[in-house]
Write a structure and sequence with these properties.
Layout: E1 2-5, E2 7-10, E3 13-20, H1 36-65, H2 67-79, H3 83-96, H4 100-116, H5 121-142, E4 155-159, H6 164-169, E5 175-180, H7 188-196, E6 200-202, E7 216-220, E8 225-228, H8 232-254, E9 269-274, H9 280-285, E10 291-295, H10 297-301, H11 309-322, E11 327-331, H12 359-364, H13 366-379, E12 384-389, H14 395-414, E13 423-428, H15 431-435, H16 437-440, E14 446-449, H17 451-459, H18 477-492, E15 496-499, H19 510-516, E16 520-523, H20 528-536
Parallel strand pairs: 3-4, 4-5, 5-6, 9-10, 9-16, 10-11, 11-12, 12-13, 13-14, 14-15, 15-16
Antiparallel strand pairs: 1-8, 2-6, 3-7, 7-8
The structure holds phosphoenolpyruvate and magnesium ion.
Phosphoenolpyruvate binds next to strand 10 and helix 17.
Amino acid sequence: MITCNGKSVYGGIAIGKIHVFAKEKQRITRRTISDTAKEQHRFDEARAEARAQLAGLYDKALKEVGEANAAIFEIHQMMLDDEDYLDSVNNMIADQSVNAEYAVSITADNFAEMFSSMDDAYMKERAADVKDISERVVRILMNTDSSGMSANEPVIILADDLAPSETVQLDKELVLSFVTVHGSTNSHTAILARTMNIPAIIGTNVELSSELEGRTAIVDGFNAVVYIDPDEDTLAKMQKRRDEDLEKRRLLQELKGKDNVTKDGHKVLVYANIGNTKDIPYVLQNDAGGIGLFRSEFIYLENDTYPTEDQQFAIYKEVAEKMSGKRVIIRTLDIGADKQAEYFELDKEENPAMGLRAIRICLTRPEIFKTQLRALYRASKYGRIAIMYPMITSLSEIKKIKAISKEVKAELTAEGIPYNDVEEGIMIETPAAVMISDLLAKEVDFFSIGTNDLSQYTMAIDRQNPKIDEFFDPHHEAVLRMIGMVVKNAHDNGIWAGICGELGADMELTERFLRMGVDELSVSPSFVLPLRNTIRNLDLSK
Ligand code: PEP
Ligand code: MG
């Protein structure tokens, strides 16, 4: 038995035969071209074909893994139109009279090297992307196939590395797991694997060779171990672990439609967080009771300019309708800090997390805010929309919001446009809001605690800076006490309080949250069923 270790990007156990995923090694030779214009045209045609293939992959990924994960194939299409990239290839063809395959592959190497040498982790990852798109173009130019997958029974894929396009192209019916020698935990591939529910291990110290083809292996995604030719004991142990895991997943499915109620009858709302309408199928599949946080700023981030009232109305109406009367809490735009849209033309700030962001932008640029509010109120006729305001720190902000919303409603009424009364709540994500939550509770219909920002501002830990991770305590007593205080002040004033930050999905804390009286937990769709399971196993009377 050979035992290899790596880093797990998704849990679960897979047992099966190995398929060594061999990339077609492109042998690219340099040729001299006499008609360089014709060669540039050949490159353009290959690029158009590559774009069409990527559009197909985007659609496939969209259906299978959702918009956020499919986005990489849109980025790849954009990279194919990047002016610097095109200039480099076209100039090489024209100036050096070389074939397109050669120009593309040299350009890919140069760009990948440039990206790899950058400090920014995100830009480093782009090195793999530029190689991926270039290999696709070269394959088209050379008319060679790309799949590298010829298995006809479910297999464990063993590869040096897998590009996002390769991962998504895998026929998931035939893939039990994948194991790679390279790759990073936060690469698109890792994220895709998690969304696809395929146990996966990267950075594995396995010696890749065709001799491994067809041999039995076990991938233990829980412990990041791969066993090749497992002995009987290991096989039996892992089979048991796999069956337990499958049973656990099956049981979770059975929770659909059941109440989120503890053994002693305490009910709690379990909602889901979304970034756009493409996430709605995940909300429905996981049977969330509503949407507790729709981060509407993504509509702004996905646009090149301010989204119009009608554009926004169509989106809010779609969510409201698709959720068929379940509560949909839409947060007004939270642009600024880590979420920047260029057309807002915000000044560069020393401390953007403490700068002009969220409600501060809305209150200083009311025309943007009013457009969003008009769209929201109009959409309220189509379902149960609630509006939530982010980054509140004072009562005066609430007063200003109310004045603007009153104006908007008066305009709609004057124009004969119907709207419903909606619940209007605020995010509690600053220590200031916590400390005056007794006063704020008298002014709004609900509170939703944004623990991501609340933790950042309470512990003075930049949530974007991985270098200070060791000082970040997600269970810091200060934050937990604040949550308790907010819930108490909410209840004392007759309103409800939920949590929509990441901490809401931390199942080590569920019991404590319920004991505090938290009324709602809004989490990523994939956490809805596990959380429901945790709730149903709690007994608060003990
Ligand atoms: C939060 O701060 O906890 C929150 C839910 O909002 P965001 O993560 O979008 O800032
Ligand atoms: Mg926040």
